[in-house]
Amino acid sequence: MAKVMAKESKVSSYNANCWNTIGVWSHARKKCDKLTEYVHCRNCPVFLEVGHSVFERVAPFGYLSQWRKEISAKESSDHSKNNSVLIFRIGHEWFALPAVVLAEIANERTIHRIPRNMNRFISGIVNINGEIKVCYSLSELLGLSYSISSTNKKEDRHKPKRLVVIKLDEKDYVFLVDEVKGHYLYSDSDLLPVPSTLDAANALLLLGSINQFNHQIAIFNISKFQEKLEGAVL
After folding, report:
1. Could you give the 3-state DSSP secondary structure of residue 146?
2. How many Cβ atoms from other residues are within 10 Å of residue 89's Cβ?
3. CB 126, CB 175: distance < 8 Å
4. How far apart are CA 20 and CA 42, in angstroms?
5. Is residue 68 part of a domain?
6. If you average pLDDT over every residue of the chain, what do you get?
7. I need a labelling partner for 120 at 20 to 30 A (CA). Which of 9, 26, 50, 170 fits?
8. The domain spanning residue 115 has which CATH number?
9. How many CB atoms lie within 10 A of CB 157?
10. Residues 66, 67, 73, 76: what is their CA dihedral angle, to the nearest 10 degrees?
11. Packing angle, helices 2-12 and 45-56, rounded to 10
C-alpha cells in the first residue's frame, strides 16, 4: 500500500494530464518542451508512470468479488446450454434431433416408390449425392395426423420441404420434412413434458420438449429413435 501511495504522489508532482493539455493529443499552440527529446508522449516517463499507476491502483471494496460473480454466472449459463439440436416441422408438429447425428440437409427431390412395398414406414427411395437411399416416413413412424388446413397449405408453398439425412452407426437414414427451422442450443433444465398431441406409444421415442420460436418442440431420444428406424425394414 505504501508503495502504491509513493508512486501516486510521484505522479501527482507532474501535470498528470499534460499529454492532453500540452502534449501530442492537445490543440495547444505551445507544446511541451520534452517533446523535443521524446518525440511522442508515450515515450515520456511521466506518461509511462501514470500508466503503471493505473494497473497498481487498489480496486474499490467489493469491485473484484462482484466481477468474479458476474463472470462465473456467465460461464455457468453458457456451459449449461450444451445440447445442440436441429429443429424441423412435420405437418403441425415440431421436432428436434441432436445436431451430432446430422449428415446433410438436401433440397426436396423425387421420392420413387418401391414396387410391392407394403411397409408404410418407408416412403420409397431417393438419390442423395448419386447414392440411392431409403426414405422413411416420420409421419407414419410417429403416427401423426397429417391433415392440414388450406391456410397451412398456402404457407407451405412458400416454405420449401427438405430431405434430412442423419447417420446412426455408420448407416444413413433419410426423411422428408415440411420445414427446417435451424439449430438451437438448450440445457437439460429447459426440458418440458412431451406434447400431448403426440401418440402416447411414440412418446417413448422422445426425451421431452422445449419451447422455442413460439412452438413446443419435441426432442427425440436418439437411441429409441434408432431402434424404431431399424425396425422399419422392407
Report:
1. coil
2. 19
3. no
4. 12
5. no
6. 81
7. 170
8. 2.40.50.180
9. 8
10. -140
11. 150
Residue 104 φ then ψ, to 5°: -165, 150
- Cβ-based neighbours of 179, under 8 Å, separated by 6 or more: 88, 89, 156, 159, 161, 162
Query: Any idea what DSSP says for residue 178?
Result: S
The SS3 of residue 92 is coil
99 contacts 86 by C-beta, under 8 angstroms:
yes
150 found inside a domain: yes
Cβ-count burial 44-62 (b if 16+ within 10 Å, e if not): bebbebbeebeeeeeeeee
Rounded CA-CA distance 119/189 in Å is 38
CA distance 72 to 216: 31
State which residues form the domain around 152.
82-231
Q: How many domains does the chain have?
A: 2
Band (pLDDT 50/70/90 cuts) for residue 74 is low
Helix (H, G, I), strand (E, B) or coil at 62: coil
Q: Which three cell numbers stand for residue 86?
A: 436441429
Structure-block grid coordinates of residue 29: 499552440
Do the bridges between strand 171-177 and strand 131-136 make them parallel or antiparallel, or are there none, so unpaired?
parallel
Tell me whether residue 90 is exposed, middle or buried, using C-beta atoms within 10 angstroms of its C-beta: 0 to 12, 13 to 18, 19 or more.
buried
How far is Cα 88 from Cα 126, in angstroms, rounded to an integer? 20
pLDDT tens digits for range 205-226? 899 999 988 899 999 999 999 9
Summarize pLDDT for 147-203 with one digit per residue, the tens.
444 445 555 566 789 999 999 998 999 999 999 999 999 988 889 988 777 766 677
